[in-house]
Design goal:
The chain is of the alpha+beta class. It has 19 helices and 35 strands. About 35% of the residues lie in helices and about 30% in strands. The longest helix has 21 residues. It is elongated.
């Protein structure tokens, strides 16, 4: 079973005990800023490791509860897997709590736990009354059927209960998709002395490795992940659901900001116009008119823009979704299905939230015709639904596609005839564009490997597969490699894969010295010195020796007699021919010494090498030539 990574959020009204509960569960004080200590409120997002075993790793985000810090709250909640709603027993559900509940619903949070805190401040006989009152306030929200735990962070009552409930709930959740392109919405940017720019966020999807080439979007700055940290510990990689800090090279602190997105692919869409489906809060105080100025919170970005309707000129509290468009003042990175919140900048108010139907919105006419087109987009054409399923899973069988797309089998088969889709392994479908991307990725990996190791025959296929498998299923990776071999893009020799055009070679800076080594070795005939002497004489450094010797053996320039003595291949072949011409079908050591005129120092290793190569076979004191 693959390890799964989760991030949970602590949400609720100011001073209801989120930070105290986090500290009680994790022993970490997430209020780290001086002003947070002084004012006893959370301003920035706070993070802490909660739990880890062989199956799961769980991190906690303590999001600010004060109205002024709603932006940080949205940035923290976006992308988490479970929310613990913290409600103080002595105050109950407050106006700010209700706004948080709206936001959680709009962001699609489905898993929740209600933690009623500060229970030691309420008489024991009133606890059930408090609980009933709070649950009544949560009717119709995502927390309506959530489990409830009574806790007190100071006395530690119920702390282990809420912690166990979080862990048990997460262990039943499906693992996030960590194959495919990496995406990390950035919620913190800072510098570390001597290290440079560091960004932090929750991995939405995909995975990241130390040293990986990335881009900061929407500007498209090319960077490299110099180092990774998960909970202040160095890490070689991080996966969807994990909190990670990435030390970037190639970009300054001034060029990165919260709301930017760190990605591993150029195929994420940068846009300023998105077609959306929104739901409005129940108690909207102010009318939303056509082209009303709004703030859009999407991922960790906060962007100003205007809302554009196609079937109305104003909006009040509505039942169901409203199809419309957001025209933003700045570019964002998004894709179909991403969740967002829209708020009025002044007077400040949450208007609603929803999801992205199409990140490539165009200008449309006002009227029902546009609404009908948006309805089609929302449902998605059969081809779009297939494409979306394959973008997420990378490879699916027909039966799996039927489940994911809810299409009838024949309709599915008809649409799969499109050149967009490709059948592999006689049973799985994928996107032709994805095959091209994987192929390009393999070419890049091979080019990089050949440049770094020009004397090696190629990458071990198992190692190559392991690198690709982090993005796509093994069966698809295998198919792309085999397809590349058939197209003569790649070459395979034994277990090694290379570019078809590549030939192993000595680096130019060392080829003259290598020629000198071979010339000296050949000139010494059968009576050679230790190979180390020849390497030193030619000026070959020890760091290069092992790989050069392996290359010369593989390319049949030299043959090892044992670990110390090597012959030039021409001399070895001469010795074999001489021995064969002066002996019968079988021979003893004495006959061999006489035929080749070698001392025992070289003769025994020579004969043992013939046995190892399968040229001869030893039977007691004799050797028999193999045909």
């Amino acid at each position: 079973m693959e390890k799964r990574y989760f991030t949970i959020g602590m949400a609720g009204h100011i001073d209801h005990g989120k930070t105290s509960l986090t500290k009680a569960m994790t022993n970490v004080d997430t209020d780290r800023l001086k002003e947070e200590k002084e004012r006893q409120i959370s301003i920035e997002l706070g993070f802490a490791p909660l739990y880890e075993d062989e199956e799961i790793q769980v991190s906690v985000i303590d999001v600010p509860g004060h109205e002024r810090f709603i932006r940080q709250m949205i940035a923290g909640v976006a992308g988490i897997d479970l929310v613990v709603l913290v409600v103080a027993a002595d105050e109950g559900v407050m106006p700010q709590t209700r706004e948080h509940l709206d936001i959680l619903g709009f962001l699609g949070i489905q898993s929740g736990i209600v933690a009623i805190t500060k229970i030691d401040r309420v008489d024991e006989e009133f606890i059930e009354l408090v609980k009933d009152d709070i649950l009544g306030e949560l009717t119709g929200t995502v927390f309506e059927t959530s489990p409830v735990v009574m806790v007190d962070s100071l006395s530690k009552k119920g702390i282990e209960d809420v912690k166990s409930l979080i862990i048990d709930t997460l262990k039943t959740k499906e693992v996030r998709e960590f194959r495919g392109a990496f995406r990390l919405p950035i919620d913190q940017v800072f510098t570390v002395k001597g290290q440079g720019t560091v960004v932090r966020g929750t991995v939405y999807e995909g995975s990241i490795e130390e040293g990986q080439a990335l881009q900061v979007m929407p500007k498209g700055q090319e960077v490299r992940a110099r180092q990774l940290q998960v909970h202040h510990q160095p890490a070689k990689s991080a996966f969807a659901g994990q909190r990670v800090a990435v030390n970037l090279s190639g970009v300054s602190r001034e060029d990165v900001e919260r709301g930017n997105v760190l990605v591993s692919s150029q195929h994420f869409i940068v846009t300023k116009t998105i077609d959306v489906a929104i739901t409005v809060v129940e108690d909207l105080e102010h009318l939303v008119k056509q082209r009303t100025l709004i703030k859009c919170h999407i991922g960790t970005a906060e962007v100003m823009g205007r809302i554009v309707f196609f079937d109305r000129n104003e909006l009040q509290s509505e039942n169901g979704e409203v199809l419309c468009q957001l025209r933003l003042e700045e570019e964002i990175v998004t894709k179909r299905g991403d969740r967002f919140i829209i708020r009025r900048p002044s007077p400040q108010e949450t208007i609603g939230g929803g999801w992205v139907i199409d990140p490539r919105g165009n200008k449309y006419r006002f009227g029902q015709g546009t609404i009908a087109e948006l309805e089609k987009k929302k449902a998605g054409t059969p081809e779009e639904r297939i494409e979306a399923a394959l973008l997420e899973a990378k490879g699916l069988t027909l039966s799996e596609l039927i489940k994911r797309t809810a299409l009838e089998e024949q309709e599915l088969l008809d649409n799969l005839q499109s050149k967009k889709f490709l059948l592999f392994n006689s049973k799985e479908y994928t996107l032709a564009s994805l095959v091209d991307l994987i192929e390009e990725d393999i070419v890049d990996k091979l080019k990089s490997f050949h440049e770094k190791h020009p004397m090696r025959p190629g990458i071990n296929k198992a190692e190559l597969l392991q690198g690709i498998q982090k993005q796509v299923p093994k069966s698809l990776a295998e198919f792309v490699i085999e397809n590349g071999l058939q197209k003569r893009m790649f070459n395979r020799k034994e277990q090694f894969v290379s570019l078809e055009s590549f030939k192993p070679h000595v680096p130019k800076s060392w080829d003259k010295r290598t020629d000198n080594l071979l010339e000296e070795l050949k000139g010494d005939g059968f009576k050679v010195r230790h190979l180390r002497d020849y390497l030193n004489s030619a000026g070959i450094p020890e760091s290069l020796s092992a790989e050069l010797v392996r290359f010369l053996e593989e390319q049949k320039y030299i043959v090892s007699l044992d670990e110390q003595y090597y012959w030039h291949f021409d001399n070895f072949r001469e010795a074999v021919d001489t021995l064969r011409n002066h002996t019968g079908s079988e021979f003893e050591v004495g006959e061999a010494k006489e035929a080749v005129n070698l001392s025992r120092k070289y003769m025994i290793p020579f004969l043992e090498r013939l046995d190892a190569l399968g040229v001869t076979r030893r039977v007691e004191n004799k050797r028999i030539w193999k045909k």
